[in-house]
Amino acid sequence: MEEPEEGRWIALAREGDAAAFGRLITAYQRKVYGFVLGFVRREDVADELTQEAFLRAWKALHAFRGESAFQTWLFQISINIVRDWGRRQKWRALREIPLFWREREDEEGPADPMDRLEDKSAEASPGRGAESLDLKRRLEAAVDRLPAREREVFVLRHYQNLHLADVARTLNVAEGTVKAHLFHALSKLRKLLEREFHEL
Fold this sequence. Notes:
The protein is mainly alpha-helical. It is elongated. The chain contains nine helices and no strands. The chain has helices spanning 6-14, 18-40, 43-60, 70-89, 115-121, 128-144, 148-159, 164-171, 175-198.
């Protein structure tokens, strides 16, 4: 968010101004919700964890020093909450809801990294809707099979469109580590998807 007043809202919220923090919630709630939903893929759980993320942010706001963007800081809190939830659930819920959450027609623009592929296939395939859905499902299943850290990096980079440096800050790892995880994730996804289509 490029809001000139954001710094003032943060400063006021750090002094205990709940209304100022409410403005920050309004500005970032959708992004945090989408971020969380990209991992848990259950709307009820995403709602609950998003509320928990903002509650934790409110309690820890004194620790925010502005060394990273406020959104990155919120994502750091959110990823830890998602990990905690995953440990509690033992990841049993990860395959219950599709990863792709922006399916409504009223959303502006493409929702996922497969959009370019879908656009290119539009003219060649009149029944591309069913094919695209099948392709998405296959990608979802492949992403689910990635190791946890590679999956986190992939989701942050390709679904949240974060720069590599922001992914590194969110996960508290070196940027080189992010690049390595992303390389391995993409290589594994490519192999998994190739295997899927060869078996058709």
